[in-house]
Amino acid sequence: QVQLQESGPGLVKPSETLSLTCAVSGYSISSGYYWGWIRQPPGKGLEWIGSIYHSGSTYYNPSLKSRVTISVDTSKNQFSLKLSSVTAADTAVYYCARVGAGSTNYFDYWGQGTLVTVSS
Amino acid sequence: AIRMTQSPSSLSASTGDRVTITCRASQGISSYLAWYQQKPGKAPKLLIYAASTLQSGVPSRFSGSGSGTDFTLTISCLQSEDFATYYCQQYYSYPSITFGQGTRLEIK
Questions:
Q1: B70-107 pLDDT tens trace
Q2: How many inter-chain contacts (A to B, CB under 8 Å) are there?
């Protein structure tokens, strides 16, 4: 069974960088699939942030591209998100998920999510 | 970017009812559409992909249809555990992904 678990600080100050890690178990990232980040502000809908392949190829939401970096560490079977220059608008539950490639580009396994609050 | 619009935004129904949620894309997306169910405090759960293919383990009372710009999610006989928020997601503009704004299904 594929399992994903997000981890990282729950509180980040404005203008600083949000950093989260997603640990994957039950499946080797190197075996394939893309791995993505999605966020959900409190009481609002879902927003795709970006995705990464085990080779390191990345794709980002154009609205966040200038501030987002997603990286992968296949030796630890995990991938990470960095979002720079955060503001209160970046307060959200952040989910990591497995996503297929091409014609299967939907999310079939999700982490439980982690709430990140941006506040001084 | 492809915009996904769901209707209604919220819906009240009773156990045993048949309900339909609609998702419209701002341009044709063939059948590259997925549906998710999200319960409060939980991660979304994949229900349907390729517009009409049921994800493994999802009850058969859920069904999806449509292609091009108009899609529907139907729950044939509502159960208590079905009251949740539902999202559509297009993946035609791979690798860029967009979600609908969600439809909240509440108990009448």
A1: 999 999 999 999 999 999 999 998 778 999 999 999 98
A2: 63
Give the span between the Cα atoms of B108 and B104, in whole angstroms.
Answer: 12
Mutate to test the interface with B, among A22, A46, A94 (most CBs of B within 10 A): A46
Cβ atoms within 10 Å of B85's Cβ, excluding its own: 19
Residue A6 pLDDT grade (very low, low, confident, very high; cuts 50, 70, 90): very high
pLDDT digits (tens, 9 = 90+) for B31-61: 999 999 999 999 999 999 999 999 999 999 9
Q: How far from the centroid of its chain's Cα atoms is residue B71's Cα?
A: 9
Give chain B positions within 8 Å (CB) of A105. 32, 91, 94-95, 97
Interface test with A, best of B53, B94, B98, B101 (most A CBs within 10 A): B94
The rounded distance, in Å, linking the Cα atoms of A103 and A119 is 39
Contact A95, A110 (CB under 8 A): yes
SS3 content of chain B, % helix, strand, coil (to 5): 5, 50, 50
Q: How confident is the model at residue A27 (pLDDT cuts 50, 70, 90)?
A: very high
pLDDT at A117 over 80: yes
Report the gap between the CA of A104 and the closest CA in chain B (Å).
Answer: 8
Is the separation of the CB atoms in B91 and B98 below 8 Å? Answer: no
Q: What is the number of other CB atoms lying within 10 angstroms of the CB of residue B22?
A: 16
